[in-house]
Amino acid sequence: MKKRGIFILLALGILITSLGFFIREFPDVRILKNHHPVIFTQGFTRPKVFFVKNKPLEWVSLSDISEKTLGAILVSEDWAFYHHNGLDPNQIKKALEINWQKGRFVRGASTITQQVVRNIFLNKDKNLWRKFKEIILALRLEKELSKNEILEIYLNIAEWGEGLYGIGPASRYYFNKHPSELTAKEGAFLAVLLPSPRKYSRTFREQGLTEFAFNRMENILQKMTQAQYLTAEEYQEESSEPLVLN
To answer: CA 114, CA 139: separation in Å to the nearest integer?
Structure first.
């Protein structure tokens, strides 16, 4: 009986430890159903995420962002966003091919859903365990929230420059506009920043728009035309218009 009691205590200990491990490693994404994530940077070595019930002052609803800007970000970051379950098989295949060729982990093929769970719940270390957690949490999030809810969260927590989080502050900083007023070209500019916001925003601030930026924006505008966010006439107009930064 004594041995049986010890065995039960050991089993309970293992169970509690395992439960604690999974809670720590796989947070409950359902908190996003009734809380808004808010990112703070001041005084922290890494950005900290807090959850609040009331909509934050800087929060911008999806309906208050121009359709052209939404189109620019979608074709740039996750063209198949409204058609996948959180993972994009085509992008995963491309990433595997590139990583195999390079012999190291250089591309993760993260969808917008994966970026949301990574930015809120995980660190940004490039390793397979973090990637596995990202995939599991993304699949869970797709079951709990609608696509529009996920996209709205993404746009309000994405980084567009050092310490610059959310499309509201980014729109004011770069163009002195509300997100509802952004043009397709301005949306394309913001989309260009997303892969590496601190690096690209610093380059643009110090040197003006680079050839890479111009080419990337042009590519995004072309994709927007293919995806029917722009007509051929709108594309010609947007392509010829100069980009005026604030």
So the answer is: 9
Within a domain: residue 4?
no
In tens digits, the chain (246 residues) has pLDDT values of 555 555 444 444 443 443 343 444 769 999 999 999 999 886 666 788 999 999 999 999 999 999 999 999 999 999 999 999 998 877 666 655 555 555 555 555 689 999 999 999 997 777 788 889 999 999 999 999 999 999 999 999 999 998 899 999 999 999 999 999 999 999 999 999 998 888 888 777 777 778 888 899 999 999 999 999 999 999 999 999 888 887
Distances (CA, A) of 238 to 74, 125, 182, 220, 221: 18, 38, 12, 11, 8
Residues whose CB is less than 8 angstroms from the CB of residue 156 and which lie 6 or more positions away in sequence, other chains included: 36, 37, 56, 58, 59, 60, 165, 166, 167, 168
Containing structural domain, residue 205 = 26-53+66-240
Q: Is residue 8 part of a domain?
A: no
SS3 for the chain is CHHHHHHHHHHHHHHHHHHHHHHHHCCCHHHHHCCEEEEECCCCCCCEEEEECCCCCCCCCHHHCCHHHHHHHHHHHCCCHHHCCCCCHHHHHHHHHHHHHHCCCCCCCCCHHHHHHHHHHCCCCCCHHHHHHHHHHHHHHHHHCCHHHHHHHHHHHCECCCCCECHHHHHHHHHCCCHHHCCHHHHHHHHHHCCCHHHHHHHHHHHCCCHHHHHHHHHHHHHHHHCCCCCHHHHHHHHHCCCCCC
Within-domain flag for 16: no
